[in-house]
Design brief:
Blueprint: E1 19-22, E2 27-29, H1 41-48, E3 50-54, E4 67-69, E5 74-77, E6 86-88, E7 93-95, E8 99-104, H2 110-117, H3 120-126, H4 139-143, E9 146-149, H5 152-190, E10 211-214, H6 215-218, E11 219-222, E12 235-242, E13 252-253, E14 258-260, H7 262-266, E15 278-281, E16 290-293, E17 297-299, E18 305-308, H8 314-319, H9 321-331, H10 342-346, E19 349-352, H11 355-393
Parallel strand pairs: 12-17, 13-16
Antiparallel strand pairs: 1-9, 2-8, 3-6, 4-7, 5-6, 5-8, 10-19, 11-18, 12-14, 15-16, 15-18
Length: about 400
């Protein structure tokens, strides 16, 4: 028996080799066209598709080939397939022409076929596209892919297993999104709106107007630099050296990918930034990404970082980063790429309460950020679990 035709991980009671089939024998593109002017595609897709897969962007692309999909169809975003957009239709509905509706032959399980669309083999072929600016997957190439199929009872068993896992992932995503929306709402209410000096919500015992201050007075703004990349004596030392791509959603920067030596620091415009008092702030390319430094380090020139002085709580400053980002985006300049300068940032005016109230606000959002980080890690853990199981349970 050819072991390559059996999965590495299998449910008890199922044995034997899987049968090789061409995908074109299993799936067909459904073509039932409708008048696109009769539908609001955003609403139809939002209301009629269960978020079993990854529901992101581009659902409202309008073309003359607006068509129907049916319950049980597999939907796949053929436009820019590298975005990995797929859905399992729980109800009938309409879609844009940039989304395939794939119907499954009756002798095969719909949800098992849905798993194949998420497989590495399918996605690698889908990403061999025509076009550069608006690449689209080619259906003829995909129909030639061969997959191994178990019996229909085993297909059904696998489909039910992964449907339950998808439901768990969807629930975890919903919990995470709820926390993110809570943070967004609380930011809007716990910081004064533009033109106001008092927030809508504040902790008990605090009252009065917040005080207007200038960023350049309340923090020391420090840029970065890059040592000569051709001089090995400047690199692979023990000093953290950050680039903007390393700053994402995490509240803390705990260590950089690249390190520089003391000599590299001395021979460049990079400066040592103190731990627990510095908020890294990306000032070019993706402007406004922030993280609190937990270990002394330096950055390249893509930053204008804030070293807080005694009148500011560091997590309060990090939390009000959404206001600094908004200011930076409105005041950035440049022809090759947008950038916000140290001088422009230093002129930003903002309102702050007493240090005691700042600390309480900072602690509240720190706890909320920690919850969001844990929930995000749980979603990622489940996604990785699904990825591993797909590789182990499909041939």
């Amino acid at each position: 028996m050819d072991k390559q035709q059996e999965p590495r991980l299998r449910f008890k009671g199922f044995t034997g080799a899987w049968e090789e089939k061409v995908l074109g024998e299993i799936l067909n593109v459904r073509n039932e066209f409708v008048d696109s002017s009769l539908y609001d595609l955003d609403v139809e897709l939002e209301n009629l598709i269960s978020n079993s897969g990854i529901l992101v962007g581009d659902t409202s692309v309008r073309t003359q080939t607006t068509s129907l999909f049916r319950k049980g169809d597999i939907l796949f975003g053929r436009l820019r397939p590298y975005l990995n957009k797929w859905w399992f239709a729980e109800k009938d509905g309409v879609k844009s022409g940039e989304i395939w509706a794939l119907e499954t032959s009756s002798e095969y399980s719909n949800f098992f076929a849905y798993l194949l669309v998420q497989s590495r083999k399918f996605l690698e072929t889908a990403n061999i596209t025509s076009g550069t600016k608006m690449p689209r997957a080619d259906w003829r190439s995909l129909t030639a892919i061969t997959f191994n199929f178990p019996s229909k009872p085993e297909q059904t068993h696998l489909g039910l297993f992964f449907r339950r896992l998808d439901s768990q992932i969807a629930e975890s995503r919903a919990v995470l999104e709820k926390s993110r929306q809570l943070k967004k709402a609380m930011l809007a209410k716990m910081f004064p709106a533009n033109g106001e000096k008092i927030p809508k919500i504040r902790f008990k015992g605090f009252e009065g107007e917040w005080e207007c201050r200038k960023l350049g007075i309340e923090v020391e703004i420090i840029g970065g630099g890059t040592p000569d990349t051709t001089n090995s004596a400047y690199w692979n030392g023990d000093i953290d050296w950050y680039s903007p791509t390393e700053i994402g959603e995490a509240a803390y920067a705990n260590g950089s990918v690249k390190k520089i030596t003391l000599l590299g620091l001395q021979k460049s415009s990079a400066q040592i930034l103190p731990a627990n008092r510095t908020v890294l702030f990306t000032s070019r390319a993706s402007i406004g990404d922030m993280a609190i430094l937990t270990k002394d380090g330096a950055t390249n020139q893509g930053f204008q970082s804030f070293v807080v002085r005694e009148k500011l709580d560091v997590y309060f400053l990090y939390t009000m980063g959404f206001k600094i980002k908004d200011y930076a985006l409105k005041n950035a300049s440049g022809s090759t790429f947008l950038e916000i300068s140290k001088n422009t940032l230093s002129q930003m005016e903002f309102f702050v309460p007493s240090l005691k109230e700042q600390t309480q606000i900072g602690n509240f959002f720190r706890q909320l950020d920690e919850t969001i980080a844990l929930q995000s890690a749980e979603v990622e853990k489940l996604n990785q679990l699904k990825k591993g199981l797909l590789a182990a349970m499909l041939v």
